[in-house]
Protein: Alkyl hydroperoxide reductase
Amino acid sequence: MEFKKLIASLFVAFASISCSNAQKEAFSIEALTEKIVSIDGNQITFQEVLNQYKGKVVVMEVWASWCGDCVNAMPKIKELQSNNPDVSYLFISMDKTAYKWKDGIQKHQLKGDHYLALDGMKGTFGKAIDLDWIPRYIIIDKTGKIILYRAIETDFEKINTTLKSLK
Structure:
C-alpha cells in the first residue's frame, strides 16, 4: 500500500511540474493588464502593446542590460532579425532603471520596439509570464496566439524552426 502512495505522490509532483512548464496559447489577464513603460516614458498596458502587432508575427525578448546571457545572445537575435525581416521584434527589459535600460538599447544597437517592466523579473509582469530566466523568447503568430511560450538563449534552432513554420 505504501508503494502505491509513493507512486501516486510522484505522479502528482511530475504532473505539477509539467503543467507549470506547459505551452500557453494566450497571456493571462494579469500579464495583459500590467502596465509597462514605453521608450518615451509613457505607461501602457501590455494588451495595448500587443494590439499594435495585429496581423504580424512577433518575437518577444525579455532581457536586461545587466544579464550576461542576454548580452551573449545579442548576435543570435541580430542574425534572427537579418534572416526574418518580415517579423516584428518586441523587447521588454527587466532593468531596474530607465537609464540602464536605454543605455543597454543603445550600447547593443537593438532594433525593434522597446518597453520596460516596472518591477523587474520577480514583479507582477514577470510572474504573469512565468519568467524564470532571461533572455526569454516568446513567439506570437499573426492572430495573436502564442506559438512558442518558453525559449531561452540556447533555443535558437527551435526559434528559427518555429518562425519558418509561420511563413
